[in-house]
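Sample pair:
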Amino acid sequence: MKELLIVIPAYNEALNIVRVVENLIEHYPQYDYVVVNDGSTDQTAAICREKGYQLLDLPINLGLAGAFQAGLKYAYQKGYRYVIQYDGDGQHRAEYIAALLKAAKGGYDVVIGSRFAEKKKPFSPRMLGSRLISAMVRIASGTRIQDVTSGMRLFGPRIIRILALNMNYGPEPDTISYLVKCGAKVIEIQVEMDERTAGESYLNLARSLVYMVQMAISILFVQAFRKKELEL
């Protein structure tokens, strides 16, 4: 069984993808990776093909959940034991992957690269949504997760199988909440993240508000009353 695959969902990341992938190739060749082009309308896929990067090229935009699940299916079919979700915008730092992997090998199913595992979450408009979603997860699952919206997450073999083979489990806080209720062991590891330096984030103010409402409904109502049907 292969050890770790870095799955990089990328939507219109032509300005960032070379920097992200070249850093992995040059400084972290021990890790395999795959870029999942999520139906980009820019040159993301063309750049990846020109550079010879490992690429899954989706013909349409599926969103983060669909793109990451495509990467998980690839990892599951190829026999990888661990998968890490890794942004294509350059905000995640590969130097922390080893610490996340070590924690997973210690018996954890989900390891979150957390900005607030050891540091206090600031009181700011930007962090309001994160605080609210964390509170909802705690109400629904009884577990406190400080950085539940972090996009840097490492999944172990039991979770890879579940997320790869089932349609209704995206890499989002509501799924994390549900997995905890089903017995998944989750830990946060302190990391630092960089600000996006090029391109535009998908989550503008309006989409962020919609996202928060969707997570609230899913965590407090959909996932809270869902049967613990997963075998963990």
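The mean pLDDT is 89.
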